[in-house]
């Protein structure tokens, strides 16, 4: 037997952590574990990835290993293996035919974050830009309302605090994020080791909330009232940084009347949080230095954009911006590590030399658009499992079953989405190709290394789209650039003085030795060059000039507000097909407060029918006193085809939009529950 090699790579999933991974390899067999020297993973991956990366990901029987063509009715799961040439030839022929008959905008490009590694995520977009396809705006299924809101206020949503600055923080306010599940290493290490007072705002008493010094538990969709009340206390108690506002913000005068009206008593009545807790949290946060983590769960609400604008007023108003230990984070984009994402996604120079793409479509409208032959002749779904993660699950299935819709699906596994496709292409997993990972929390840059061969004929996204471009007769050099050249160019442009071999050796680098201070230069890319607490841009878009102290109405009658956030055991919809993960997940449940269940005559363990605006779903009732009255909790991430009902929680979700960015308001879903 040969010696064991130890190789470094990085988890590229849609997760804040971007863990460093150690791969032990001998005779072509590998075992995956956390990199002990990596400051984030510290020798331990999350439990779901430990299972899946040593389980279903390496299981050739579970993986797609060859291109497939449908050989039975849509959705029946009957496919015949074909060669890459035949599959790509068939795709090229149909895409050309749709483009000729209807125009290329009738070809839809649906993609998201199955992998966030830079090339596999973005290089294929060069192909779609050349084609002139309609993009299904990726962030509309996740976090676009928050992006739009933060751009109104700061001109930028992807330039967050550097987490290392927490060493100078006295308080960390986590607002509508649940790192115990969605960023497990930040929950386990970063938060407690900061030594800061931890304030968590979450309607659910999550593990993150349990670990907090102060847990504020608002009714979902009432956070703007809380934000205004915190500003009220800060203002009343002389904790507003008038000098910072005068120098760097516009619109505080317009906000102030709302702030003065938003007493803690008023907010307590709307949010359900008691006055003393509001007062205490306001003083601790305002005293600072404080960090604000704006979670993605926070803005998946009917008024989610307004909520984020209101919350985003806290850092400048209290002087918690522009000095060590302060700032806010929604996401840290790769540009903060000088990665040229525009070039990666287009291969071209500045945006000016490209033809304008057709207007994007929201994921909230995808089912409707796909049902319309005039608008949708073909769909390419890659890096996403729309039949599990999108709203209007039943309507989407019907649309995907249209005989005259040509669907290509690209994945590692046979998902609900690939089952409904005409051509299925097998994608390589992250252990099987080289790439770069840029965490969206840490300001680090990491290598993703090929440590094992892909199963069968699977190929990375990049190579699939290079070959498809060739099959289509597109000969633009940008569509043919090999991965090693793209990687080298990205690293060279970033100018951190490392090439890919050096990055692989290091695993992860932090381009700056010292934490950067967010907005240290107080240069805000808004129209005024300042923080816009009142925004003419928002007004021009038909929105209020300032955030408003408004909340969602409480559900009427016996309706409950359903929250379906991240699940501990899946990463979005991934890993539900891993045997160990599936065992841990158990049957699908919906949790209510014990008093809520009792008031409805429902006992834990009962089978209930949950009815939402788009459909109904049988679930097992559970009770949890961390869930408030009037709210139900059922995490996302199950595969419809693995459920007895053939559906998951998105069968309930009608695709209601938030107030900004055509984005999802999934946590605004109202349901009723009845015994089966
Ligand atoms: N009810 C409800 N629904 C939600 C949400 C919610 O909170 N509640 N959250 C929403 C959010 S935040 C998001 S981000 C979406 C996520 O929804 P999705 O993007 O659909 O979920 P993922 O599981 O991240 O990835 C989808 C697929 O990508 C595949 N994949 C992984 N790596 C690769 C690769 O290298 N190449 C290719 N071609 N495929 C790959 C995986 O196998 C997986 O099947 O779901 C949304 N849906
Ligand atoms: N294990 C695991 N990790 C993941 C994912 C996963 O599916 N599983 N998904 C990844 C993806 S795609 C994303 S976008 C991130 C998301 O990760 P986070 O940013 O943590 O967001 P969510 O988990 O969607 O929701 C966080 C919290 O928001 C709360 N919430 C819901 N409504 C409200 C409200 O009205 N007000 C307030 N204050 N809180 C509210 C929910 O109760 C939940 O606990 O996680 C990533 N990490
Ligand atoms: S999903 Fe997140 S926590 Fe799990 S291994 Fe990947 S980066 Fe780490
Ligand atoms: Mo997401």
TrEMBL record:
Residue runs in coiled coils: none
Alphabetic keyword roster: Iron, Iron-sulfur, Metal-binding, Oxidoreductase
Oxidoreductase among keywords: yes
EC number: 1.7.-.-
Pfam families referenced in this protein's UniProt entry, alphabetically: Molybdop_Fe4S4, Molybdopterin, Molydop_binding
Statement: the UniProt record of this protein carries the keyword Transcription regulation: no
InterPro entries the UniProt entry points to: Asp_de-COase-like_dom_sf, MoPterin_dinucl-bd_dom, Mopterin_OxRdtase, Mopterin_OxRdtase_4Fe-4S_dom, Prok_Mopterin_Oxidored
Molecular functions per Gene Ontology: iron-sulfur cluster binding; metal ion binding; molybdopterin cofactor binding; oxidoreductase activity
First-tier enzyme category under EC: oxidoreductase
Domain 4Fe-4S Mo/W bis-MGD-type: 4-59
Family membership noted in the UniProt record: Belongs to the prokaryotic molybdopterin-containing oxidoreductase family.
Protein name (Swiss-Prot/TrEMBL): Assimilatory nitrate reductase catalytic subunit
Species assigned in the record: Capillimicrobium parvum
Lineage of producing organism: Bacteria, Bacillati, Actinomycetota, Thermoleophilia, Solirubrobacterales
